[in-house]
Fold:
Amino acid sequence: MARLNAAETQVYDRIRSAIGDRQLLPGQRLREVELCRIFDTTRGTIRKVLARLAFDGLVDHQPNRGASVAQPTVKDAADLFVARHCIERAIAREAAARIDDASAAHLRAHIDKERAAHDAGDRQRMIALSGEFHLLLAQISGNTVLRRYLADLVARESLIIQLYEKPDQGSCSHGEHAGIVEALLAGNEAALDAVIAAHIDGIASSLDLEPVHPARPSLEEVFGSR
Amino acid sequence: MARLNAAETQVYDRIRSAIGDRQLLPGQRLREVELCRIFDTTRGTIRKVLARLAFDGLVDHQPNRGASVAQPTVKDAADLFVARHCIERAIAREAAARIDDASAAHLRAHIDKERAAHDAGDRQRMIALSGEFHLLLAQISGNTVLRRYLADLVARESLIIQLYEKPDQGSCSHGEHAGIVEALLAGNEAALDAVIAAHIDGIASSLDLEPVHPARPSLEEVFGSR
DNA sequence: TAAATTTGAATTGTTAACAATTAATGCCTC
DNA sequence: GAGGCATTAATTGTTAACAATTCAAATTTA
Structure:
């Protein structure tokens, strides 16, 4: 996609993080002129940004009907976690081959931040930091393709968590993240695979992907035939 | 990205397959007005298509300097093959869980086409069919996320093959594809992993990623200090 | 009253003119 | 001639007006 210039990138980042931070909820309409006013820019800019967000899967964009924050389905969520597992596994292996003292220190510092956010009860920050941890791993792996895919998946996951998270969830992933760093440094592939799998499964199982938010039943199905 | 309408999709597909078919070579400039004339459309359409191709990694797009067919580096190629290995492995596992008689028949029919193209010596068609085989697997897997990533990787790979293929390459992948189908139906994960790994390695090793098209040495390095 | 139709406002999509940038050419100076 | 400078042409980027579409409310009709 066309490289976004400075102004476009700014708008893009703000909308994107607003989605990630749950300020913009799934289904929220995103009208062009309204966004123009808010960001003091032109419709051309907004259109480009919305187009890109749509391509990212964060926004639904239907012809002549405008854009709204995406509402991923249960199927989307399931597919995403399968993909994420395989990408994370590959990233971990590459990262294990390339990790050095400096990057290990980075990771540990990041985990400290996560712990602090957890202790402070700052849930929003915890979610953001958790995503960043994985992107940090991707950066250490040095593989730009995997990094891009992971960034894509992490962003979409935040929408999925919003839609499908079980109400009681405690989500204290920094412990698991520490385990990943240990396994990375130990260089044991099997152990690494296991801890990655457990982590992704842990995230997925904190969600209610079964029947809670099913594809909406039609009015027929609800009221019909009695 | 904004859903492309019919006219845009047509232009997009034609440019994309022209790149895949080696009609447009890496580095070829893609001027907007020229493309307008060729496809009898407006600049707006062309710009959207070029933007999307740039996002796909098939086109380089620099501000105020226009677009040209991308020239992936050796590093790009290496990263891509690592990613492709992991994606293909995941697709194969999902496909193995979902394959039925009808889809197995599809795959076999496809392999017949590949064999025919090979016997006819139609190299261009062989490359296209080989990519399609993998996309067919992705479709069988039912995972839309993995399918999209694979489509992305396959498209970019064709550029890489053009740039880095060893001159003598015989490329008769339909035999390996048949092996993949067998392993799929056998449902043996370890065997499947092995055949997938061998296949991707086979493609990668048909390339000259070492020193043939290296990062260009600076003029200093070539002429300097003697 | 309920369905169908019309109307108009709100919104998105497209286009064509204008602006800005880059690359190339010719000119002048030394 | 080589290098520097101005001019010109080619190309990309932006914008603002116009067109098309959708949605909802108001009106009509049965």
Remarks:
- Residues 6-69 of chain B form a domain with the Arc Repressor Mutant, subunit A fold (CATH 1.10.10.10).
